[in-house]
Amino acid sequence: MHSYILAADIGATKTNLGLFLAGSERFECLKVTNLKSCGEAELIGRVKEFMAREMGRGNLISACFGVAGPVFNGRVVATNLGLELEERVMRRELSCPCLHLVNDLVATAAGISLLEDGDLVSLQAGSNCAVKDSETVAIMAPGTGLGMAFMVADRPLMIISSEGGHADFAPRNETEVELWRYLQKRFGRVSRERLLSGPGLVNIFNWLREQASPRVIDGAFPEDLPAGEISGADVVAAAAAGDPAAERSMAYFTSILGSVAGDLALTGMTSGGLYLAGGIPAKIIDFLGRGHFLEAFRAKGRMSDWLKQVPVKVILNPEAALIGAARIARERITPFS
Predict the structure, then answer these.
(1) I need a surface site. Which of 18, 79, 182, 231 has the fewest CB within 10 A?
(2) Range list of H helices, the chain
(3) Are strands 3-10 and 59-67 parallel, antiparallel or unpaired?
(4) What CATH topology corresponds to 3-111+319-331?
(5) C-alpha distances in Å from residue 303, one per residue of 46, 128, 252, 267, 268
(6) pLDDT at 105 over 80
């Protein structure tokens, strides 16, 4: 009879479930399934179906669920989903006493050292080609929301979760002050996530459309297209097709992303590197390479030279958090080797 590890990456939009062999040193993944994110009862039901279908008579010995929200005392509310989960309930329902909930960026951080070269793209080589022991690493993930975390590149895993995506957005110039005012009128408080996420990219695009002349916005989108009908993916596609307002939106988005990433690197003194994860960065590699991101990342006055030495990489593997959750589940059984 086989022993298994169950891992999950629960985001605001979709959920990945993975089944791993518990005794595999290489984290052998037997099956991955993708679900639309849902409520607690439906999620537990779908997990049970997945286990019954894939495990047979096998034994589930450990599980870890990475969730897009803050985890406190074994309980999490997914910030942009409204899903509430409790370890106590999950352990009982899934008959798995060794089950843990972690923030999804904690899971992503745990998976970094298990990624292969092809899973990463370098934006800045920096002075360190690889993560070294005892150096701090930052992870930043714009997607439906904006996740952040820090990790000390040492064994055992030492990962610090963060809700820095909900910290205040700090405009750097008069134009960004205008953007802040536009968002402040809509939302009251303007967090970083209001700009650095899929909905945030749409916010930037709509701001530009409202202040632009018809000639400037004459491109892939009709001028009178309702804001609610545009997604972040639509803006990226329109920018790639040459739409002027969408291209300007991507320039603002990548510049602000770079600035916040630079702040994050300074906050944690992340000499081990900064990793961009989440649903957006892997899809906008070309825009990240146009200069706006790195220029803003390095533009930190007296700390600019230090930031030039920080490696910056984009995680391409969409299952990084799933792999990391499996690693955490396994480490709760035996030390990672």
Answers:
(1) 231
(2) 40-55, 87-94, 104-111, 174-187, 198-211, 214-217, 232-240, 244-268, 285-288, 292-298, 304-307, 320-331
(3) parallel
(4) Nucleotidyltransferase; domain 5 (3.30.420)
(5) 49, 17, 22, 12, 13
(6) yes
Where does residue 177 rank: exposed (0-12), middle (13-18), buried (19+ CB within 10 A)? exposed
Domain residues of the chain, as ranges? 3-111+319-331, 116-316
CATH entry 3.30.710.10 includes domain 116-316: no
What pLDDT digit, counting tens, does each position of 7-52 carry?
999 987 889 999 998 876 677 788 999 988 778 888 899 999 999 9
Residues 6+ apart with CB under 8 A from 179: 171, 195, 204, 207, 252
> Beta strands 99-103 and 59-67: pairing type?
parallel
- Encoded amino acid at 166, one letter: H
- Report d(CA 66, CA 114) in Å as an integer: 16
Q: What letter represents residue 58's amino acid?
A: G
Bond from prior residue into 156 cis (ω within 30 degrees of 0): yes
Give 207-265 as a DSSP string. HHHHHS-HHHH-SSS-TT--GGG--HHHHHHHHHTT-HHHHHHHHHHHHHHHHHHHHHH
Enter the pTM of the model. 0.90
